[in-house]
Task: inverse folding
């Protein structure tokens, strides 16, 4: 999430390519957060702590 | 210039009208004050129905293309510059030196003259920079609603040096595939202008004339088997066409394909495959393996080939599949799409 | 690209593949259903099946909302589009899906129907505002992931008092589809489910408890290669241990409860559950969303008094079997010969999430050559 816009909208960016998305379906999302996008709506906020846990589990499965 | 006409064309505020296509003095004025004023060169100035050209030394190559891109103006270019670059590139893909272009315009009633002037000026600039003059042309006007602003058809002629045999059916198993630079730039730049899609990061079309690059390449490696520019349909369409034409299989390394991060991101958002997106200033080359290193060096030495890379190899395959070795080392087919890619929803 | 690239790491992918192979018990087969069309597509695009041992068999499930729509529903959309007062807005995926007699929205557009591709329901609302004298109908398809977008559009249409906007509602529910698959007699039993990613972001993971109770191992998975490989491994471990649990492999993006706001929007605008005819399953009770009474004016079926006409699938098309994992795409007589993405007979071949399309697009080089099969 790069920029909050009026009307509960936001500018989101993937690798530098930006697009408008609606925040109507999420709460508490701030600039810098990562979101799951679907058909022009953010439908969920990516939880960085959970992401780390997931990667750790993957690494463990992988025998690292 | 305006001596024959009551008033000069109102380029700033005027629009194309049906009279401009009528063959009468209105059309003559449009041609004189707008087209010739920008494109002027000695051959065009002959003012006949056909351009008289000096004899050419070498085998003749000819190519034609229609340009119907919408929107007319996009980051990095417009329909005019694209038309000039595109046809020059098609000629160059035979290893030929482009010599002359023609340009036929179908104008929609109501097109602002300012837009037309801007496009013609852009064509003139592209033509001058490439050193390939537009020597003859035509103008027609159709009713409002029948031409999306304007359509341009350009035809080019060039000459191929003796000894070069560069063709789509010449690829052999073992040939190395080289790509001159990043893919997807043009298509994404166009998408960024259409209604409903907006990108905050400016992605520019890569529209460019690559005949200078080609000249360097064939001079260094005349054994090049095939050159092609991956325009509509992108790399996947071009690779599939050539595999079929030459009767070989192709294997492409996903990790070797240069893609700008911002184009990758745009494709990720839209659910599009960068391999299927149009390019207007890139080429792929097939050459015998013993010359690949030399060819790559020559490409990288040219400004339009700075990011050139070896992306794959041709193999024996009676079924002529184009396969991608993914970054995971697995293999899948690069599909030849029937129509345009539709952005996925999920 | 954060949260995307690291889940495509090649080294980790191969290590996970090795772990999967090591986890497979001798003499044992593992039959796993990937419910979600997006997963089918992702497996195919990354060639992940190449990394799995042969004893792990993936079966394609009904999670392609386009593939499970019967031809009659597409006919209804095309009929509306041909109404000259109507602008039909649709996601790209629907444009080439064949209805009866292979009619499509894109063919209708070519003969003058005003069909417009949109990326979001918000675009459709914009078109409605820009064209007050026309009727704008949004073709709502998809499971619970896409439904919230439609729900928000309905809410906005009502609060903005739009008088020319409606939704042709074909939104479906995921649990009934999974129930229907599990209820079918199968030649080979299913051992585990790779549950949908994005749908679960909306509906949560608790909804799958009933399937674990019924004996299925369940792992909710994300879409990147490492997500999918990890899920396969987690399922194999459950199956080996003889347990059946719901595990959340996509915890960075979703939780057990789902998305409160999205569920509330659906509850307000499309609370009803109606019987809906599914390709492959026939009529499933309480499987389709129904627009609420107080949003009736935005329900295109009521607004235009549409009558749904059931149309049987074309002969020889086995999409119905494919969407419930009963048969594989290659088993279809029409696969690759009469039915290709160029000229599809059934939706499984044209939808980007369809099992047939995924197999054709990305995997046909592994199939035994048949006749004149060229790459085109």
Result:
């Amino acid at each position: 999430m790069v920029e909050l816009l009026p009307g509960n909208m936001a500018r989101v960016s993937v690798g530098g390519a930006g697009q408008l998305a609606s925040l109507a379906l999420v709460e508490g999302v701030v600039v810098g957060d990562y979101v799951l996008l679907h058909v022009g709506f953010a439908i969920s906020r990516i939880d960085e702590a959970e992401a780390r846990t997931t990667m750790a589990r993957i690494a463990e499965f992988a025998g690292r | 210039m305006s001596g024959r006409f009551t008033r000069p064309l109102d380029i700033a505020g005027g629009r194309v009208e049906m009279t401009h296509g009528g063959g009468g003095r209105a059309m003559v004025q449009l041609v004189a004050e707008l087209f010739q004023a920008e494109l002027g060169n000695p051959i065009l100035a002959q003012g006949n129905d056909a351009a008289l050209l000096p004899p050419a030394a070498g085998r003749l190559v000819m190519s034609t293309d229609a340009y119907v891109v919408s929107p007319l103006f996009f980051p990095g270019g417009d329909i005019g510059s694209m038309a000039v670059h595109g046809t020059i590139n098609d000629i160059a893909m035979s290893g030929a030196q482009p010599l002359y272009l023609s340009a036929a315009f179908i104008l929609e009633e109501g097109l602002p003259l300012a837009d037309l002037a801007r496009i013609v000026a852009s064509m003139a600039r592209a033509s001058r920079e490439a050193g390939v003059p537009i020597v003859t042309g035509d103008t027609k006007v159709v009713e409002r609603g029948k031409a999306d602003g304007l359509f341009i058809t350009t035809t080019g002629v060039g000459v191929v040096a003796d000894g070069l045999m560069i063709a789509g059916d010449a690829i052999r198993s073992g040939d190395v595939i080289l790509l001159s630079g990043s893919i997807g730039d043009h298509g994404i730049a166009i998408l960024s202008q259409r209604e409903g899609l907006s990108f905050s990061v400016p992605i520019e079309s890569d529209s460019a004339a690559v005949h200078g690059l080609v000249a360097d390449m064939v001079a260094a490696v005349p054994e090049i088997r095939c050159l092609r520019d991956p325009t509509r349909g992108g790399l996947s369409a071009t690779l599939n066409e050539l595999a079929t034409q030459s009767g070989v299989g192709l294997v492409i390394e996903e990790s070797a394909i240069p893609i700008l991060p911002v184009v990758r991101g745009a494709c990720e958002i839209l659910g599009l495959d960068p391999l299927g997106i149009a390019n207007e200033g890139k080429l792929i080359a097939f050459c015998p393996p013993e010359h690949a290193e030399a060819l790559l060096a020559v490409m990288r030495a040219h400004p339009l080939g700075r990011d050139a890379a070896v992306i794959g190899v041709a193999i024996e395959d009676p079924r002529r599949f184009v396969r991608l070795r993914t970054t995971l080392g697995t293999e899948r087919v690069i599909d030849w799409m029937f129509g345009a890619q539709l952005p996925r929803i999920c | 690209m954060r949260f995307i690239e690291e889940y495509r790491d090649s080294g980790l992918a191969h290590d996970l593949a090795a772990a999967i192979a090591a986890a497979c018990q001798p003499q044992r087969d593992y039959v796993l259903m990937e419910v979600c069309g997006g997963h089918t597509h992702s497996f195919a695009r990354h060639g992940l099946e190449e990394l799995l041992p042969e004893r792990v068999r993936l079966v394609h499930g009904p999670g392609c909302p386009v593939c499970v729509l019967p031809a009659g529903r597409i006919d209804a959309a095309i009929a509306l589009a041909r109404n000259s007062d109507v602008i039909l807005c649709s996601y790209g995926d629907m444009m080439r899906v064949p209805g009866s007699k292979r009619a499509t929205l894109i063919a209708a557009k070519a003969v003058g129907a005003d069909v417009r591709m949109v990326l979001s329901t918000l675009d459709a609302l914009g078109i409605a505002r820009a064209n007050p004298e026309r009727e704008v109908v949004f073709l709502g398809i998809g499971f619970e992931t896409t439904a919230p977008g439609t729900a928000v559009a309905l809410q906005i249409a009502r609060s903005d008092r739009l008088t020319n906007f409606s939704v042709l509602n074909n939104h479906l529910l995921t649990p009934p589809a999974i129930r229907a698959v599990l209820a079918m007699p199968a030649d080979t039993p299913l051992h585990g489910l790779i549950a949908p990613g994005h749908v679960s972001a909306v509906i949560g993971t608790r909804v799958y408890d009933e399937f674990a109770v019924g004996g299925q191992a369940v792992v909710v998975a994300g879409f990147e290669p490492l997500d999918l490989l990890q899920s396969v491994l987690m399922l194999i471990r459950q199956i080996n241990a003889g347990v059946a649990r719901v595990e959340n492999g996509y915890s960075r993006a979703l939780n057990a409860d789902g998305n409160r706001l999205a569920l509330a929007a659906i509850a307000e605008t499309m609370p009803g559950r109606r019987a809906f005819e599914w390709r492959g399953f026939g009529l499933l009770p309480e499987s389709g969303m129904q627009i609420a009474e107080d949003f009736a004016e935005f329900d295109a079926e009521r607004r235009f008094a549409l009558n749904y006409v059931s149309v049987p699938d074309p002969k020889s098309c086995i999409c119905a079997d494919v969407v419930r994992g009963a048969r594989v795409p290659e088993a279809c007589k029409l696969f690759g010969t009469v039915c290709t993405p160029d000229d599809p007979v059934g939706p499984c071949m044209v939808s980007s999430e369809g099992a047939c399309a995924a197999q054709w697009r990305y995997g046909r080089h592994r199939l035994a050559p048949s006749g004149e099969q060229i790459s085109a």
Chain B has eight helices and 13 strands. Residues 54 and 100 of chain B are 11 Å apart (CA to CA).
